Amino acid sequence: MTEERSHLRVQGEPPARWGAVRLLAPLIDAHRRPRGPYTFAAALLRHLAPSALRQAPELVAAHHIEILAAAPELADLLPAAPLTGGEDLTDEERILVPAPRRTLRLANGLAEFVRDAVPPGRAIAVCNADAADPTDTELLDVMIRRIPPATLTIMVYAGGPEPPPDTRDTAELWHLVDRCTREGFLHAVAELGEQGMGATPPGGTSWWRFAQRTATALGGLGRTDEARAIWDRVRLVSQDPAMHAAAAYGTAMLDARHPDPARRDLTRARAWINEAIAISTILPDPAERAFKLGFDRNGLALIELRQGRLDAALTLVESAIELAGELGERHRQHRMVLLANRAQLLAAFGRTKEALEDYGAAIALDPAFPDQYLERGNLLFKLGRHEEAGADFEQAMRLGPPLPEAHYNRAELYAVREQTEAALADLGRVLDLDPAYLDAYVNRAGLLAGCERDEEARADVEAGLRLAPGNPYLLTVLGQLETAAGHHAEAEAALEQAMERAPGLVAVWASRGALRYATGDLEGAVDDLTHAIELHPQPDLYTNRAIALRALGRHAEAEADDHRAAKAADGSIGI
Question: What is the pLDDT of residues 348-357, one digit of tens each?
Fold first, then answer.
């Protein structure tokens, strides 16, 4: 018999004695004061990394980025690694702030490192979890979900001793805020940046640096009202034109990029970005003017794109690229972004050769940035250049911590190539990394249903519908499953709901056609399949309609559909 073990979460404080528990390390205090992000992670890594480096250096190398992001003090201990993009840029040139999802990538990478590095059968105890930074909270959640208790038992206590007060001075605080900005620890930037603003004279250079990073972090977190309030404070206390231009740009992007599309105000965004452009146009320094004006025009291009004016968006991005040519070798990241943006617009116009050239140029400027590989891979996939697309997706996977999107994209590639098991494996990896990845449930449920693995498909449908009740794709798969099970009333209800939410979804019409055929409504089956074909002709739709037509005795029409199915399968009919 083996001892049953499980992770533990307790609202109180840790016990004074641990009895027979084999602690891997002394009690770890996760309180975010005074260290900030990854306080817990750094303490654990300081214990694990030295022995892992001796026993499994390849494991440390595989997680080099995650380890140094959480515990930069280990840099002298670890072997040098190549630059991962942006480390050699000046403060002015670093324009990209990692998205909030980067911390999930780091958490997954760290959890995998801990899982593979820890001696089995041990435990860790963590206190002050309620006062931990969100990076540590997320990491603990991922570790509890992904590390079996038999490998490492994790005991998390909400309470614990109060740490000493924060004694950091403003120079120290700035370095922490700057590091957190570069790493994408946005919650810490928002909290510590406010402290920095309160400790420096309003409107001064130091205050501005804190304000700019705090507002950017709040915007990235979707806390748009708080971000807008900071940009308003900038306008209130400063007469510096560059600050006002940046505040106008930042305010415009809050409206243009609001996480809720229904709350985007593109008209107000245009007014603010026009103000930013007007100020940037008259900045006295030629290099600063070229950079900021190009930056602002790129922002206006986003607004034009979201209002459906692709020609205007492309013209603006091209003018920004022309301005960037005045900057020499500086602002590499800015030029990379502009080239990638032009590539997306060129692809939308069908100018795929030029788009691929721009993606290649963007990648050449920063070969360690995974996003461009994903975008180029998607374009190559649409062009049917599957080997090249797969190579780009795999390169994106190699460039840093686990990247769910790359596995999701490769799964789509595998599915099109009818490599179903490989597609299912990649989708499983996606959901292991991110259980809230809705599209992965949709695609995996569809593949499982197609393999007649109905119980597994139903489990994915139910998990997905818990995340997004009423999702039409999942409801369509549910309708297919209920039809296969002979639950016709339930199938009809699911498909009706899907149809209400997405009347243009081909699969729901095809699925209801199959249901009507199964219930003997042959005319209804033909009608539904005809509508599906009108939306998007596909070989299997013609084949299924031919079956229904033949059952009705309409043999000539059935023969014609068989002929259409064969031609569509050969590519003679646009699909």
Answer: 999 999 999 9
